Automatic annotation (TrEMBL):
Top-level taxonomic group: Eukaryota
Record-linked CDD domains: PH-STXBP6
SUPFAM superfamilies assigned to the protein according to its UniProt record, in alphabetical order: SNARE fusion complex
GO biological process: exocytosis; Golgi to plasma membrane transport
Gene behind the chain: STXBP6
Cell location: Cytoplasm; Membrane
Stated name of the protein: Syntaxin-binding protein 6
Record function comment: Forms non-fusogenic complexes with SNAP25 and STX1A and may thereby modulate the formation of functional SNARE complexes and exocytosis.
UniProt keywords, alphabetically: Acetylation, Coiled coil, Cytoplasm, Membrane
Membrane topology note: Peripheral membrane protein
GO molecular function per UniProt: phosphatidylinositol-4,5-bisphosphate binding
Binding partners and assembly: Part of a ternary complex containing SNAP25 and STX1A that can be dissociated by NAPA and NSF. Interacts with STX4A.
Main location: cytoplasm
Taxonomic source organism: Callithrix jacchus (White-tufted-ear marmoset)
Taxonomy of the source species: Eukaryota, Metazoa, Chordata, Craniata, Vertebrata
Amino acid sequence: MSAKSAISKEIFAPLDERMLGAVQVKRRTKKKIPFLATGGQGEYLTYICLSVTNKKPTQASITKVKQFEGSTSFVRRSQWMLEQLRQVNGIDPNGDSAEFDLLFENAFDQWVASTASEKCTFFQILHHTCQRYLTDRKPEFINCQSKIMGGNSILHSAADSVTSAVQKASQALNERGERLGRAEEKTEDLKNSAQQFAETAHKKPHFC
């Protein structure tokens, strides 16, 4: 089981939440954290996770999850409601950068994702989730590549694939309907021809 699947099962599923996406990160600038603040557990991996509740009305949140060295379990740390997110900074709109910033009402973090592609995927899901679940005060996305905001995003590609499949199925049904229509017309013509032949044959005089 991958780390993200384990996080979804261990952290979010018990609370009846569904994890939409996650990105493994490291801080760009090291914070001086007291030894006791980490529980004295040493090094750890950090994941920024996006989740929604299964119950209506749907609530979306961003959660910081950690996995300490030598442990197979995950620990929920900080959490913010999606409404608290004010700005998403992609750092470089022209290149594949793994760096990004998240600005909340009461927090600001500077991160580096494990890969630029993982950051891009997370940003696409985050942007889509903001558009879907937030009606007021949506966060500002700055210095982001155009594919994150739309265009070539995986979400749009998936939607395009579904649309294409529906169009192909519809076209196939239309073509089938046209073939059936032509067959019915041909059958009707044959029926009329047979009927006319029968009537003509019936009218002809019979010679014994």
